[in-house]
Amino acid sequence: MAFPWSAKNLPKQIFINNEYVDSKSSKKLTVHNPTDGSLVADDIPLSGEQDVDAAVAAAEKAFPVWRKMAPNERRNIMLKFAQLVEDNAIAVAELTRVSLGAPYKAFGAFEIGLCAEAFRYNAGWIDKFGGESWPQEDGFLKIVRNEPLGVTAGIVPWNGPVGTIGLKAGPALAMGNCFILKPSEKTPLSSLALGSLIKEAGFPPGVFQILSGDGSTGALIASHMRIRKVSFTGSIATGKKIQEMAAKSNLKRVTLELGGKSPAVVFDDCDLENAVTWTANAITANTGQVCFAASRVYVQEGIYDKFIEKYKEAMKAKSKEVGDPEKEGTNIGPLVDEAQFKRVSGFIERGQKGQGKLLVGGQRIGDKGYYIEPTVFTDVDPNSEIHCQEIFGPVSVVRSFKTEEEIMKLSNDTNFGLMAGVFTQDINKALRVASEFESGMVGINCVSLMFMTSPFGGSKESGLGRECGIHALRAFTEPKTIMVNLTY
Ligand code: NAD
Fold first, then answer.
1. Is the dihedral of CA 330, 335, 338, 344 positive or negative?
2. Cα of 239 to ligand 1 centre, how many Å?
3. Between 3.40.50.300, 2.60.34.10, 2.60.120.10, 3.40.605.10, what CATH number should domain 14-258+462-481 receive?
4. Mind listing the pLDDT tens digit for each residue in 399-421?
5. How many angstroms is it from 259 CA to the middle of ligand 1?
6. C-alpha torsion sign, points 186, 191, 193, 195
7. Which atom of ligand 1 is nearest the CA belonging to 257?
């Protein structure tokens, strides 16, 4: 079936039990286009308590059917869904673009691909995540089963609205759980549109459902007594609230993927071009609205001047790639909305008042929409807000350093711990530094990247638990130990 939805004709309904249905709540969400602030929709349902309860009831009913379905059947449904997402990539990405502003080639295609691949990767695990058994020489055979949790949920942010669905729903559904998706209030359209693909792929009713809503819907999910797990991606402040709600309700399992202020450490002996390319790409991809963007760049003094010259050039060139996401050649769109624009502009404005020196950028581009120049501050005060806080825009801060010891201390002097990068040709130094970074992920001669096969997530306040690889499967299952008395 051809993908039927555009922003105009998408049903402004939630997706429960394989049907688009009206929300029981009369509250609505409003979405604007960040290219010009125009209204996209003001009638998107804001799911309330009755909607969440209805989705949970449907999921509970579906759970025994789904978990007991033959593994190859479950796999085939997931593979079909992945194919449908990919077949309709442009139309789905368009529904994200109207409210996120991300160009298709530079971002939309990537995150749709990420979603499809996550479904395929996790579908491949269905008949391979087999459990364990332990020797019976002591008279007892121990069998460890990986069991699904039941009704699970994903609360996702606006900056990668479709990719994050794959990272959460993929492992949840592969392991036999039912899954309720709560997209961000800023980017609900592409998520809601997936309903028709869920049905077409053959998921039984109630297995995979979508509730649009805002933080209040998220809170209903996080504190629900019959949802057994929440996987959350978003800000640290919200992540902490979710963990608290989970603890105060039914101690549901929680995975938290939160913010970052990731360092890239560039040593004198690096390949300069490589370091400049990775660091400039890292802070401008998706207009800097990326949790693992390398937003602190530390450059050793011997290469500092040369690096700065080239980094400045690279960021100026990036400025030319900013524009209307619908136009050919645009790689960087606007910031997501007025609130984000004001937030990023505020950091830039205050940053110029004694926090650091503006090297490049700092201006709004055009007079409509939320476009901003890629911006770099040098000589930043390590205690300033632009150095310490997540800006979540195309803004980086640069400092020079003398010694490895000094820069490792500064790199780790933060409560964030998501990503780090080291640029050097000395493998001993690279591995030493990589092991000293207090972060969930480290790139050597690269930064701000991820792979489906390997754990993705943060240490310290950047997160709890991991997505991707076998770690995501563990996060959506509970081991059960069965002990067989063989002496009986
Ligand atoms: P946010 O925390 O404001 O919102 C994220 C989601 O949580 C949304 O769906 C929102 O509706 C919901 N929510 C808000 N308040 C809630 C509450 N009280 N209870 C339950 N749910 C609630 O974050 P955002 O602005 O959408 O996203 C930006 C943040 O996400 C940045 O900090 C970024 O670093 C982080 N992020 C992290 C990762 C990662 O993998 N580590 C990936 C992408 C984004």
1. negative
2. 7
3. 3.40.605.10
4. 999 999 999 999 999 999 999 99
5. 9
6. negative
7. 41
